[in-house]
Design a protein that fits this description.
It is a multi-pass membrane protein. Pfam families: DsbB (PF02600). Its main location: membrane. The protein is built from six helices and no strands. It has a single domain, classed as DsbB-like (Bromodomain-like, Up-down Bundle). 63% of the residues lie in helices and 0% in strands. The protein is an all-alpha fold. α1 packs antiparallel against α3 and α3 packs antiparallel against α4.
Amino acid sequence: MGRGPGIVLAAAGLAALGIAAWVEHGLGEVPCGLCLWERWPWRVLAVLGLLAALMRGQGARAMLWLGIPVMLAACGLSAVHVGVEQGWWPSPLPECRAPVFHAGTFAERLAAMPLRPSKPCDAPTYLVGALPLSMAAMDGLYAACVLAVIAYCLSRGRRPGRR
């Protein structure tokens, strides 16, 4: 198995992280707690892809196999987030709920505020106005596509006569 599949996986992970960073820092969208969790599989995939590109033979193949549960986790996190956005269930993360301010002086209330503004997890972010898919939904679709690429690369390496 050549270096190509590893480079593709690393690029896929870095592309997902790059888009998330662009939306956050370039467009000024504040990520919610689930959005931040959804970035972790892409970080892991980028590392696995780099390792697969550096390794040969069974080591590279093992890194590709490890990419499967990572992308399944990405699909699962996306499904949870989309369910929260659609109101099918509450968010499992406490940081996705609105902060509760208790009585006290104005200074005490200001001191209790988070350093960074938070966004509720049930407020979807839409990047393309005419497309009714939130970023969480697009993340899940992208993860499913990357999962299909991994499966294809692994099945291609199993054909008889290939080494």
